[in-house]
Write a structure and sequence with these properties.
heterodimer, A: alpha/beta, Rossmann fold, 6-stranded mixed sheet, 4-stranded antiparallel sheet, 11 helices, B: mainly alpha, MetI-like fold
């Protein structure tokens, strides 16, 4: 087991002001997940469901409200920042927007060399090899981010993440800021790298088709919770949670049909009673509106499944 | 690198105002550097009295005329450039050295420390700078060094404000998070990412502030709180020359023209630098 998280939660408290009462927002409300060496887990859900917060919790970039994280069998939940720093080499993050994830003042060579320098390696020999691995020729070394296209910038980010030979790559919507044609190329690159390097991916996306291409496992998130989890083929071919079914139906398809998800996700500061999905659920019953939120059991969190 | 340089040169030469700013700043800096070797009457710098020659209008022997004790005004105005430049640059650099680290610290760390730094800054900014400087000089005693100290004390809060707002916006940039993921320490993030990315507006502000500081020192000199005669300082010269207006106009006009040229030069240079360093704020 490479990564194991249990009961992960992140609650943001907003202070009361003259115009607003104090409130608590549960961005992530009790998520369990685990990822094997070399495995690939997709996390899907609408924007605002807590996917990105989950990624940052797993990397310990933001403090946890509750829960426990094991990385390579080691409990990193309470490790201080200084002890975490050497471990950072083995778990890397790819940002959604490569234009913002590269320091505009660093050349490609410096950006890729930075992690190597930090961890005390000589970057000279390895930077060109890393760039070649992500499909960038050597004449990119002395270019600056503003001279590159979105796809090229994302390749630089990937090279930077690979520099320290990580075991785990957390990808936060790595292709959603790219053109469709470039998306396919970057996905292909990511698949190839995973095979060659034996990497494990935690792949966050709102696009089920993209997740299907890369991942074997999938977790569907709604309002900070995992509502359905399982092997990607099983979940996509016979979704059990009404939300998963609605997500699948919302993928544009010739011929139309299926259920359409209506309305926006509820305000996480004032979540609905009972099952958090009931206001938008096509099959909700009286029991769904009251009582505790359903917990994940046999891969699905629904009173009716 | 050469491409960036060429772009910078092109951006500068394209604008008449920037070129004028550079020309003015370069002339004044050159005059200040080689002043002691080119002035026609080097012995007039330290003072002295030559009443037979007093208040002569501009002539071949005295291009800018002479003052009320017969000293050559051209000589004293050129040497005055040394005083003004040194003081202007000194005030700006010291203020930036105090203000920028405090501002970046406030923006990056946040919490009670930020509150403390920013409220102290507000306290200083709530009083008009020159008024506060006059009060401080009055307390410290008149003189060019005390005038500098007073102006540094009223000048640093502006740098805290600017550096803090830059640090605040950079702190939430994904590339800062990316640096943390790469294992960078807070010190490294500060030096390698936050500071280089907030340096452009600081350089622009510093260029403009040198002009403002020169004006402020001249103002204190004019009020009799800065350099004392016979130190050749532009503000102090105008202060005395005021009594000889309008009949002996050359005494006030030439130091005044140099103050004007210096302030204008540094302001235009600041505008030009902004166009180079921050292409996004380009006014076309």
């Amino acid at each position: 087991m490479l990564l194991h998280a249990s009961g992960l939660a992140k609650t943001y408290a907003t202070r009361a002001t003259a115009f607003r009462r104090a409130s608590r927002v549960a961005a992530v409300a009790g998520v369990d997940l685990s990822l094997d060496k070399g495995g690939a887990l997709g996390v899907v859900g609408e924007s605002g469901c807590g996917k990105s917060t989950l990624a940052r919790l797993l990397l310990r970039l933001i403090p946890l409200s509750a829960g426990r994280i094991l990385f390579e069998g080691r409990d990193i939940t309470a490790l201080p920042e200084a002890a975490l720093r050497p471990l950072r080499a083995r778990m890397q993050l790819i940002h959604q927007n490569p234009s913002a994830a590269l320091d505009p003042r660093l050349s490609v060579a410096d950006a890729v060399a930075e992690p190597l320098r930090i961890h005390g390696h000589d970057p000279r020999a390895r930077v060109p090899a890393l760039l070649a691995e992500v499909g960038l020729p050597g004449d990119f070394l002395h270019r600056y981010p503003h001279e590159l296209s979105g796809g090229q910038k994302q390749r630089v980010c990937i090279a930077r993440a690979l520099a320290l030979e990580p075991r785990l790559l957390i990808l936060d919507e790595p292709t959603s800021a790219l053109d469709v044609s470039v998306q396919a190329q970057v996905l292909e690159l990511l698949e190839g790298l995973r095979r060659q390097r034996g990497l494990a991916y935690l792949f966050i996306s709102h696009n089920l088709a993209v997740v299907r291409q890369v991942c074997e496992q999938v977790a569907v998130m709604y309002l900070g919770r995992v509502v359905e989890q399982g092997a990607i083929d099983a979940v996509l071919s016979s979704p059990r949670h009404p939300y998963t079914r609605a997500l699948l139906a919302s993928v544009p398809r010739l011929g139309g049909g299926g259920v359409v998800l209506e309305g926006d996700a509820p305000n996480p500061a004032a979540p609905p009673s009972g099952c958090p999905f009931h206001p938008r659920c096509a099959v909700a019953r009286e029991a769904c509106r009251e009582g505790p939120a359903p917990v994940l059991r046999h891969g699905v969190a629904c009173h009716l499944a | 690198m050469t491409r960036k340089l060429r772009l910078a040169v092109w951006l500068l030469t394209r604008s008449f105002a920037s070129m004028l700013g550079i020309a003015l700043v370069v002339s004044i800096v050159t005059l200040a550097l080689i002043g002691p070797w080119i002035v026609p009457y080097p012995d007039h710098v330290a003072g002295g009295i030559n009443l037979a020659n007093k208040l002569q209008p501009p002539s071949a022997a005295h291009w800018f005329g002479t003052d009320e004790v017969g000293l050559d005004i051209l000589t004293r105005v050129i040497i005055g450039a040394r005083v003004s430049l040194l003081v202007g640059i000194g005030i700006t650099l010291s203020a930036a050295l105090i203000g920028v680290p405090l501002g970046i610290l406030a923006g990056l760390v946040g919490g009670p420390l930020r509150e403390a730094i920013m409220r102290l800054t507000d306290l200083f900014l709530s009083v008009p700078g020159l008024v506060l400087a006059i009060a401080l000089v009055a307390a410290l005693g008149a003189g060019i060094v005390n005038a500098m100290i007073a102006l540094i004390l009223v000048w640093w809060p502006g740098y805290v404000r600017l550096a803090e707002s830059k640090a605040l916006s950079i702190r939430s940039e994904p590339y800062i998070e990316a640096a943390r993921v790469a294992g960078a320490t807070t010190t490294r993030i500060l030096w390698r990412h936050v500071l280089p990315n907030s340096i452009s507006p600081l350089i622009v502000k510093m260029s403009m502030d040198i002009g403002q500081a020169i004006l402020a020192v001249a103002s204190l000199g004019f009020l009799g709180l800065g350099a004392r005669p016979p130190t050749p300082e532009w503000g102090a010269m105008i202060s005395i020359a005021r009594g000889y207006l309008p009949d002996w106009w050359w005494y006030a006009i030439f130091p005044g023209a140099f103050i004007y040229a210096a302030v204008l030069g540094f302001n235009l240079l600041g505008d030009g630098l902004r166009d180079i360093l921050d292409p996004k704020s380009n006014r076309g």
